[in-house]
Design brief:
It is built from no helices and four strands. By secondary structure, the protein is mostly beta strands. The chain has one domain. It has a two-stranded antiparallel sheet with strand order 1-4. A two-stranded antiparallel sheet has the order 2-3. The chain starts with 13 loop residues before the first strand and ends in a 20-residue tail after the last strand.
């Protein structure tokens, strides 16, 4: 795998019930076996997870194609993949 292009891990978003104040680490490389979250598989690459703390408890839809313009969250980019 190239260090500058993420692997497409899926072509549909994964719904996740976020908990306010909880820390999350979204996988940016596409290699994690715990999609959509990081499991450390990025270590031999130049990728790092997108870490954030949920501002509110809600259901969010996480990107698995890794092409989103809104890192972490699905923006429909998977619909443009061939």
């Amino acid at each position: 795998m190239s260090n500058d292009k993420a692997k497409v891990a899926g072509t549909v978003p994964i719904p996740v019930d976020l908990e306010e104040g909880k820390r999350y680490a979204w996988c940016t490389c596409g290699l994690s076996e715990n999609q959509p979250f990081c499991d450390g598989k990025h270590k031999p690459t130049s990728f790092t997870p997108q870490v954030f703390i949920a501002e509110e408890s809600k259901t969010a839809y996480f990107c698995t194609c890794k092409q989103t313009g809104n890192p972490g969250f699905c923006d429909g980019s998977h619909k443009t993949l061939s």
